[in-house]
Design goal:
two-stranded antiparallel ribbon, 12 strands, 8-stranded parallel beta barrel, 12 helices, TIM Barrel, globular
């Protein structure tokens, strides 16, 4: 989960269109008795391969780490099926992660098989993750193309047919061969307003608007410099259609991915990680809201709500990536209400409208040297969402916060008082 850099002026443009999503309060949480809502109450931790090598290098290390997770009240772990372009299990579909530079993994090591076995023996669920735009490309044609025609140097465009075909093939293999409980997506989105202006996107967009776009990409948008470091968007005549097209592209990806996974093995759940800052998410093109939600921003087409994909996933891990826990703390800075764990969770519940359970996910680096604030954040996530997500296990281990996590997950959900040292800070995702 990477903090994506946004243009200052883009945020200002969206702010002018923004309605107050939290004004009417938070909807009630989904009950656990309705089908996929068995996922409610999940407390999940991510194990990024590169950051947790010592905790994932063999069965003994995994069992030791997973046992700490189970003891603390976590109920599920997330491991990667691919890291930096290398597969974490033996396969003909790609190079094994033992071939990575400076790898510590044995050539025949199967991380997915080992992790699922250890997790299930300890009573934990085990999910595999696919990080979309964060994966390494096999060739330059898989990359995003910016407005100026420059190809991005990192990551891939997950929506390109060749890219999608490759990773759907990997998903089929993993889901059909391993007893994983689910797939957790991340990065199924665009890389800011600057992408994607490839020829593929142009062709697809012309099909979407049902006419040629002669003045490409100026009919969509242009950028006007403000100073040496910042630019502002100048919407073109097809700007709203372009934003709707990008959101529809993400929606259709999840519709297809869900079918691929369920066909490979029925019952495997589909989850997705998203950032909670919905008013700013148009830059990424991912409308993770319910189809029933109408935000009514001025840049939205009348049927923009139909691009919402919350109904297509079984769970949304929502990044409540703020050091300030309560709305009151954010307001005292001053910051917007949703620049707090509480406010962001309230907004997410309103946007998703009970279409899927929400897991309030925390970025532990934001609480470094402040375990009390970390406990408060976990308690708030418990109160406001259907479970707690921890990113990443490396911070739990490095900070030795297992006891604090157990207190926060197993004790009362009431949020502890703010301590003098927990001064509200100016921080946005």
């Amino acid at each position: 989960m990477i903090h994506l850099k946004r243009l200052i002026s883009c945020r200002a443009l969206l702010a002018l269109c923004c309605v107050c999503l939290c004004a009417s309060g938070c909807r009630s949480l989904p009950t656990r008795s309705k089908g996929r809502y068995w996922l409610s109450g999940m407390n999940i931790v991510w194990f990024t391969t590169s950051a947790n090598t010592s905790r994932l290098v063999n069965a003994e290390a995994i069992r030791e780490s997973f046992a700490l997770c189970a003891k603390s009240g976590l109920t599920a772990v997330v491991i990667e099926m691919e890291t930096r372009g290398y597969l974490t299990y033996p396969s003909q579909l790609g190079p094994h992660f033992s071939q990575m530079p400076n790898s510590h993994f044995a050539p025949d090591y199967d991380l997915i098989a080992t992790a699922t076995q250890q997790a299930h023996e300890l009573g934990l669920k085990c999910f595999v993750s696919y990080f979309g735009t964060h994966t390494s490309p096999q060739n330059d044609s898989w990359r995003f193309v910016q407005f100026d025609g420059v190809t991005l140097s990192a990551g891939v465009n997950p929506f390109l047919p060749d890219v999608k075909a490759r990773y759907f093939e990997i998903l089929r293999e993993v889901v059909s061969q391993y007893p994983v409980d689910g797939v957790m997506f991340d990065g199924i989105r665009f890389r800011g307003f600057e992408t994607d202006f490839s020829e593929w996107s142009r062709v697809q967009f012309e099909r979407f608007v049902r006419r040629p776009v002669e003045n490409w990409p100026q009919e969509v948008l242009t950028f006007r410099p403000i100073d040496d470091n910042n630019s502002t968007i100048v919407p073109g005549s097809l700007y709203r259609e372009w934003l709707c097209f990008r959101a529809r592209t993400v929606h259709d990806y999840f519709a297809e991915a869900r079918k691929v996974i369920r066909k490979a093995r029925p019952g495997v759940f589909v989850g997705d990680y998203v950032g909670s800052w919905y008013p700013d998410y148009a830059s990424l093109g991912a409308n993770w809201a319910s189809r029933k939600f109408h935000a009514e921003y001025t840049w939205m087409m009348p049927d923009y709500n139909r691009t919402g994909y919350a109904e297509l996933v079984d769970m949304l891990a929502v990044g409540l990536y703020y050091p300030n826990v309560t709305i009151e703390e954010a307001q005292s800075v001053p910051l917007k209400d949703y620049y707090s764990v509480e406010g962001a969770a309230d907004m997410a519940q309103k946007v998703v409208a009970n279409a899927a359970p929400l897991i309030g996910t925390l970025y532990l680096l934001q609480y470094k040297d402040n375990p009390h604030q970390f406990v408060r954040a976990v308690q708030m996530a418990r109160q406001k969402t259907n479970g707690v997500g921890i990113f990443d296990a490396v911070y739990l281990a490095n900070y030795d916060w297992w006891d604090e996590l157990e207190t926060a997950l197993k004790g009362p959900a009431e949020v502890l008082p703010l301590m003098p040292a927990d001064i509200p800070v100016e921080a946005t995702p």
